[in-house]
């Protein structure tokens, strides 16, 4: 096997391996984006919750300051709200992922808010009564916090949208990789199936060539010897005719095996209807043809079909014997297989003979098996099955004692 052949043989497996790696990579990327999206949701929730809390505390502090300024005394809830404001602002500034959702300006505004709150609000808690100065800074604090929370929401939406886009893209890559893996697997199965079929055909061709080569010269020598014999000189003249007929049949089988060996090189084709008419004209038994128009128009290798059908018809005629009501029917039709996108020719050869018992039917396609003594060599149906297989078809036999025999040939067209 050449290096190029080895590469071609390994190519399907390389393709399916690459597709599987792509699928695994796409799957992990998808999981990464999903985890990142979940993290963004969690962090975004923390930022937005704290900014909302700060705005709420500022609103309550503003109301408490107005009450305190009117009464001249510190409102009861002002101390708690100031403490919670300081705590939330401090926690927000300490979050290491805050800059991912907030701009530099927003971080600066938060720092300013924290400083102003410590300067104007914390002294009130410690006993100062300068409520007017604190009231003046409150609108600025609320405006700063409104700007910060708006930025947090907008930036969070952008990040989440980016995560969703990344996750969707990763899922699409995973689906593509999975489809590619499936395609590569199907291609590998078809490749292996075709390779097996090619090896089988090569083995069949090699066997046919070897057998034909080994027998042709011997059959020719035997035919020459028998041609020089005469009925007057031989001891049993009736056996001379039988021997000559057997040699003729052996020569036909050898030719047929050569035909199997070179089936791919066969260029002479013929319409099925013409082949069947020729066969009908050469038979002495009643032959009924039921050929669909499209089946009769099918173009098939002439030599192989003649040899196969002639052998099957000989078997049918031998089974009918001298039965005056003996009849052989040939039915041909085209079968469509939409799933496989294939059309097949179905050819049935049916006789109304005595049929075969199960043990004979089981051995019918075994090489050299025969129920007929004398002139027939017994290679018939086995050779027919091999020839049909060489044409990428199948040959099946159905028979029951007392119900005749039906042989079906199925060929792709």
From TrEMBL:
Histidine kinase domain: residues covered: 210-413
Main EC class the enzyme belongs to: transferase
Keywords: ATP-binding, Kinase, Membrane, Nucleotide-binding, Transferase, Transmembrane, Transmembrane helix
Chloroplast listed as a keyword: no
Bilayer-crossing regions: 6-28, 174-192
Catalysed reactions, as listed in the record: ATP + protein L-histidine = ADP + protein N-phospho-L-histidine
Any one GO molecular function term: kinase activity
EC number: 2.7.13.3
InterPro entries reported in the protein's UniProt record: 2C_sensor_his_kinase, HATPase_C_sf, HATPase_dom, His_kinase_dom, Sig_transdc_His_kin-like_C
Highest taxon listed in the record's lineage: Bacteria
PROSITE patterns: HIS_KIN
One family name in Pfam for this protein: HATPase_c
Protein name, per record: histidine kinase
Organism: Aquibium pacificus
